[in-house]
Specification:
It is a multi-pass membrane protein. Pfam families: MnhB. This protein is mainly α. It has one domain. The strands form 2 sheets. Strands 1-2 form a two-stranded antiparallel sheet. It has a two-stranded antiparallel ribbon with strand order 3-4. Helix 1 runs antiparallel to helix 2 and helix 3 runs antiparallel to helix 4. The relative contact order is 0.14.
């Protein structure tokens, strides 16, 4: 077996197959974060920014349908708000924020997008055709929008559901591994 001298460990020979393996856990600390180890500044900043970022994502959703990708960009911004909330407070904080299960959001988003894509066929128009709609709302006045905003809402719900599902599945595994490492001590 060929060996390589490892300069970091004082020259101990290592098997050639293991010379590039990490020597220590550099990505995860291996310890579950307790209540006393939480960062108050991050949590308070997140709680202040979270609603603002969600309102900005709704703005992108409503204004972005005049250009390509309004629902997708808005969904990513909202997903990043949930990622920040997860980083600050863990899965318990995220569960308190979102009452719907991610598969429900994914299914709802797909259903809304599919129905909005196929609805023009019922009126003799091609699939994904869009029309301009003008409505007089008592308090807001005259509003104009396009029917493509409904497709954007479906994509928005779909992207948020996918991000929440990723946080739920990947985050639960990381938290479980950290909890198991803490119990084995």
């Amino acid at each position: 077996m060929t060996t390589i001298d490892d300069e970091r460990s004082g020259g101990d020979p290592l098997p050639f197959e293991e010379w590039d393996h990490p020597r220590e856990a550099w990505l995860l600390s291996g310890e579950c974060r307790g209540d006393r180890q939480r960062t108050l500044l991050l949590e308070m900043t997140t709680r202040a920014l979270f609603p603002t970022v969600l309102v900005f994502s709704v703005y992108l959703l409503l204004v972005g349908h005049y250009g390509p990708g309004g629902g997708f960009a808005a969904g990513l911004v909202a997903g990043l708000a949930f990622v920040l909330r997860y980083i600050a407070g863990g899965s318990d904080d995220l569960g308190a924020t979102v009452r719907l299960r991610p598969p429900v959001l994914i299914g709802s988003g797909l259903g809304v997008a599919l129905l909005s894509a196929l609805a023009p066929v019922a009126f003799g128009a091609p699939v994904l055709a869009t029309a301009k709609v003008a409505v007089d709302v008592p308090l807001l006045g005259h509003l104009e929008t396009q029917t493509s905003v409904v497709l954007d809402v479906g994509v928005y719900l779909l992207i948020i559901g996918v991000v929440l599902d990723l946080l739920r599945s990947l985050g639960a595994g990381i938290e479980r591994d950290m909890r198991d490492a803490g119990e084995s001590r």
